[in-house]
Amino acid sequence: MARREHVQIKTDSEIAKMRVAGLVVARALEKLRAAVEPGITTGELDAIAEKSIRDDGAIPSFKGYGQPPFPASICASVNDEVVHGIPHRKRVLCEGDIISIDCGAIADGWHGDSAITVPVGTVPQPFLDLIEACEQALWQGLATAQLGGKLTDISAAVERSVSPRGYGIVDHYGGHGIGTEMHQPPHVLNHGRPGRGIRLVEGIALAIEPMITMGRPDTRILDDEWTVATTDGSWAAHTEHTVAVTSRGPWVLTALDGGTAQFAELGVPCGQPAETSAS
What is d(CA 11, CA 27) in angstroms, rounded to the nearest whole number? Predict the structure, then answer.
């Protein structure tokens, strides 16, 4: 009989602490998005992120994480790199590249985790479409993080958004529970049948993160023991937000507005408390 995973359930006050960490990440990613341009290095982006996180009184989640210890504050994955790319002071971004930036922070012992994919200068339309498809899939998944649902409702929503557009959905890598650790149970696949897995109850927090490719979804790990790239060289996009399941609806802890604007477009109530400010 399979051992049941322990899923951490947070109180309202603990979710509020996670919101603090989430806003640290959101502000760092806003600075990074603005800084991406041809000629900047991924090492320079990493320095911007670390300064932003520490200036906000938080700690980078990624630095020193895992084995071998991750050496940076962000993951910077360029073009055919899907996730976990290591920033480097000599890795220069060029016109037409795309870069996925994953960022995490710890504030008062609680984690926030989010990722964006950003075009570098002028990028061909097919790659802009890839980024848009990944972003749309993320919000479809977030909107499905509803009280009383099942975990794979989220997985199925991501797949339904991506599959008709013909992109590959990366397997093995996906979302996760998050709280006092960056990675907690449950694992959140980006594909699958709905109605399976744990029931979504108030106080569950999840990092939902679609990873999609222009070609086949197969991946390999590079010699640095971290960077995950597509085996066929096709370009990839990765987006992520941390979301809490609340009695009012999903609350996106790493979105500056809590998800209000995007959920309004989807006709979904946002779980952000009325008294909560994005400042």
Answer: 24
